[in-house]
Amino acid sequence: MDINKILSKLFGNKSTRDMKQIQPWVEKIKAEYPAIKALDNDALRARTKSLQHTIQSSADDIKAKIEELKAKVDSTPIEDREVIFNQIDKLEQEVLERYEKALNEALPQVFAIVKETARRFTENVEIEVTATDFDRDLAATRDFVRIEGDKAIYQNHWTAGGNEMTWDMVHYDVQLFGGVVLHLGKIAEMATGEGKTLVATLPVFLNALTGNGVHVVTVNDYLAKRDSEWMGPLYMFHGLSVDCIDKHQPNSEARRRAYQADITFGTNNEFGFDYLRDNMAMSPSDLVQRKHNYAIVDEVDSVLIDDARTPLIISGPVPKGEDQLFEQYQPLVEKLVAVQRQLATQYLAEAKQLIASGDKKKEEEGFLQLFRSHKALPKNTPLIKFLSEQGIKSGMLKTEEIYMENNNKRMPEATDPLYFVVDEKLHSVDLTDKGYTWLAKTVGDENLFVVPDIAGELSALEADVTLSEEERLTKKDNILSEYAIKSERVHTILQLLKAYTMFRINEEYVVMDGQVKIVDEQTGRIMEGRRWSDGLHQAVEAKEHVKVEAATQTFATITLQNYFRMYHKLSGMTGTAITEAGEFWNIYKLDVVEIPTNRPVQRNDMNDRVYKTKREKYAAVIEEVVKMRNAGRPVLVGTTSVDVSELLSRMLQMRHIPHQVLNAKLHQKEADIVALAGQSTPGTVDGKECLLGAVTIATNMAGRGTDIKLTPEVKAAGGLAIIGTERHESRRVDRQLRGRAGRQGDPGSSVFFVSLEDNLMRLFASERIASMMDKFGFKEGDMIEHKMINSSIEKAQRKVEENNFGIRKRLLEYDDVMNKQRTVIYEKRRHALMGERIGMDISNMIWDRTINIISNNDYTGCREQFLEIMAMETPFSEGQFEDNRREDLYEPSFQKAMEQLRRKTTRMAEIAHPVIAGVYENQRDMYENILVPVTDGKRIYNVRTNLEEAYTSESQAVVRDFEKAILLHNIDEAWKENLRELDDLKRSVQNASYEQKDPLLIFKLESVKIFDTMVNKINNSTVATLMRAQIPVQAPTDVREAAPEVKQRQQYTESHGSSEAEAARAAAQRDTRQQIQQPLVKEKIPGRNDPCPCGSGKKFKQCHGKNIQFQDM
User: Fold this and answer.
1) How far apart are CA 1078 and CA 1098, in angstroms?
2) What distance in Å separates the CA atoms of residue 145 and residue 135, rounded to the nearest whole number?
3) Helices 787-834/999-1028 angle, 10° precision
4) More confident residue, 939 or 124
5) How distant, in Å, are the alpha carbons of 142, 143, 163, 955 from that of 1082?
6) Neighbours of 1101 (CB within 10 A)
7) Where would a tag sit more exposed on the chain, N or C end, judged by fewer CB atoms within 10 A?
8) Dihedral angle sign, alpha carbons of residues 955, 959, 965, 968
9) Any residues with CB less than 8 A from the CB of 1102 and at least 6 apart, and which?
10) In whole angstroms, what is the distance from residue 788 CA to residue 161 CA?
11) Is the dihedral of CA 1045, 1051, 1055, 1057 positive or negative?
């Protein structure tokens, strides 16, 4: 017996331990249910409101302390406010902890309420309750509730996702189990058909009672809109508001209201993009998101694993962004690949001849030539075919082991004859010396692609005492410029080589409408709007001869991983997370809990069937399809690429077998095809009438989120037959495909057909299986099938998953560097935007500048720096500077600098107030907002301020608005420059690997220097401007009215406009929602003179329709 099974029997496994932990919660829910069931409809809703009040008032004492501290802020000196704000932050965290305790206490009753509400909607066509204002507002816009007198009538049917549906679901016990898991901030792994969407209603309802908002995150906008409409009435019946951000334009008032709802649905991308837009906002009224409280992520493995390393980017054009080298060097690389292909073909031909000779020495030489052919072009089809022959793959691997000994010491002997080396496992391409020589000879310049030894040249430059400082700086600039240009050339060549050797059309991408579009390797869907980073996408565009898009500049960016780690509580649900449980825990501290099925799984998962070649495998697949179809069973054939799905379609057409194809090119038909995938139709086989199963070929997109429902005839025939044409490198994708069959206890089967030529087998798993097939003398068409083979394949998948995790972790380490910087900058930006903590940040800036000046200068330098930055005389004499420790000068100098700032700001308010008072007292009806000019001696800033606020605060509001505008401007400009430099650094450090250095380590070290430079720049420019600020206004006639505020515009204008700022605003306003055609559903809007549905007795145009624009027909 397996040692793991013995230990499980003795101590239990994780699944049973999870069950023991959650089961008491489920028993408490069941114990509460009879009392809840006995309540009438009004009492049921009243119980919800009572629980909501209890939860929200559970932290009233802490909230009162917070308000007391906030009231002290204005009367506290600026430099002492940080202590108060730290106390407030700590108390706000305690509020969340108190809420969590109250939620746990309310959980049994709340879950029972949700279950009972679902039961009443299932068993009653209509539910009558006493109408509230919320019901009346709802009746004006929704089709499932109407008002009759003082009663609200809720119906159990409504429109969701463009389709009319009737509610018919009640929570099972296992769904209660899943709901508890989600509430506790864990991942619930639930099998297909177990109702994940219904399970989510339990924790969503419970956590929405805090009033802090719950986000339900989906992978596409159709699901977000559908689920908000499908589950919404269950929440709205109890007075909880529901909305979906994907229904509304970005930066709109409607989207802001959607975030204010108790429950907000949306796609992962839109939640992330709204966070970025909020951090580009120029006014608090531009913000849409609240604090990140609780999120449930549907298909959590897709979002937090597959898409975790995909950055969300708001970008815009850069100057000369079209000046790229990809089109220029594409013909050169195409020639180089052709030369290498010729060489690889020659090596393969020689290898075949030498291996077949029978001479041991010649065989060794032959396997070396074969290994060279493999390193030259590993995806070469003739090579793949030859490697599947008996003993060939194992012979080549033995040769590889010889050259990999002693840390690849002899590898150059094998690879030097090549022009470049492709490593398929590491996903990398490297030029050899022979390749560089070929390039130099072809372009006629031997130094064009040679990257200089920058460290050596800079070291020699510093050591050269004959140069003046100016000459040294000029030479240094020339060396750095040459290095950057040549690095860019080499980078372009390598990315083009990668595009030619590792990316195949209709597998990794498709070309549609003159654009290269990425195909998601997990689902087979086209990833609209996504682009490979680091110039790879432009390289593929150049290869395919479509328009190479211009380079862009990043204005704001975040990865989904770092976005979702900001939530106070995070949970998720999926059908396949257990294989990635380690990664979920390491990165997100999310525990994966397997939820038992409501009914036992009846699906028969057969052993994999392994063939030598793809040709034999596909022939066997077709035979299996015919066999299952003739037995009356529908067949779902899963493929890993568009090409394979089209190949199988042609093979079925030759056999005259009707079928449907669903792939990245035809994803619009998904709903229609899936609806027919579980059916059978009358037909004849060998002259006999029978039912023939439907045949559907689909890429892996069919393995996620599709629910194939079976007819009674199909169930009787054996259910849905799943046929996989290749093992995916991720076990999750295979499990998703298997999971389409056997939903809710339905019968079904699954089997995978595998060949030794498949990518997974070729790279990781074929040696032992190939040798076994050789040993038993398998002939063409023979297949091997055994549980041990399955184990071997899954072991290979685990290898790939570990490798992918390593790649993801490394890439995310790069982003973590940026994320730490982003957290600091966005916090400072939010302080400036809201204004509450801006004084504290300015005080910290002055303290930082004071220490920096005194620590890093002699007395003369201090004088210059205090004048340049602080606009003040040195606050100590030369004697004091010499006689005292530097540390003793910090505090008195800081206090004098703060005193100088207070004098400046007080003087600004004194000058501005008489003018503002004159305008307010005589012309207040004319102006709401005005522009107040402020100058620092170099520029004039027109500061937008509210006239009434400026008057009532005796012009202190003008000072605050000026401070806010300057700080926002300086932070934004410096952050954009910082992002640009980090992008350049990330690209340039990759060359460090040639010097046997770790690029990530260099990136971390250099990024700290870049960040410190940025912070110094922000502090210097902000303090210098604030210390010199003055108002030149002399008379009320000089005051100008501010134009109506436009969303996402700057709060001030400079005498020299910034086109980059305009580009950033345009980028932030871009609509990032998925542009997918969905069924058009006309909203329920009464006529203008019809009675309002809310029951008020007024006409619709005078009640809930007064803000609607009516069109005359």
Assistant:
1) 35
2) 8
3) 10
4) 124
5) 11, 11, 12, 51
6) 17
7) C
8) negative
9) 1092
10) 45
11) negative
The H or E element containing residue 1011 is helix 999-1028
- CB count, 10 Å around CB of 571? 23
What pLDDT, in 10s, does the model give residues 381-414?
A: 888 888 877 778 778 888 888 888 777 778 888 8
Query: Tokens for 1047?
Result: 């969303």
Average the pLDDT over 620-630 and give the result: 92
The Cα–Cα gap between 188 and 179 comes to 8
Count of residues making up the chain: 1113
* 383 CB-contact burial (10 Å; exposed 0-12 / middle 13-18 / buried 19+): buried
Q: What stretch of H or E contains 648?
A: helix 642-654
Other Cβ atoms closer than 10 A to 53: 11
* Residue 470, CA distances (Å) to 456, 466, 477, 481, 861 in order: 20, 12, 11, 17, 21
What single-letter amino acid sits at 581?
A
pLDDT in tens, 178-189: 999 999 999 998
Cα torsion through 324, 338, 355, 779, rounded to 10: 90
Rounded distance between C-alpha atoms, residue 534 and residue 158, angstroms: 47
Q: How deeply is 1034 buried, as exposed, middle or buried, from its count of CB atoms within 10 A (0-12, 13-18, 19+)?
A: exposed
Residue position matching structure tokens 């992962």: 268
Burial class (CB in 10 A: 0-12, 13-18, 19+), 444: exposed
Query: Which CA distances in Å does 729 have to 30, 510, 733, 756, 794?
Result: 43, 21, 8, 14, 9
The single-letter code of the amino acid at 40 is D
Would you tell me how many other CB atoms lie within 10 Å of the CB of residue 125?
9
686 CB-near residues (< 8 Å, 6+ apart): none
Structure tokens at 375: 């390193």
Instruction: Give the SS3 label for residue 141.
Output: coil
Listed range (224-228, 811-815, 911-915, 956-960) with the worst mean pLDDT: 811-815
Alpha helices in 79-220 (DSSP H): 81-123, 133-139, 173-183, 196-208
Q: Of 417, 422, 434, 387, whose CA–CA distance to 501 is shortest?
A: 422
CA–CA dist 1093, 152 (Å, integer): 11
Q: What is the DSSP letter of 1076?
A: -
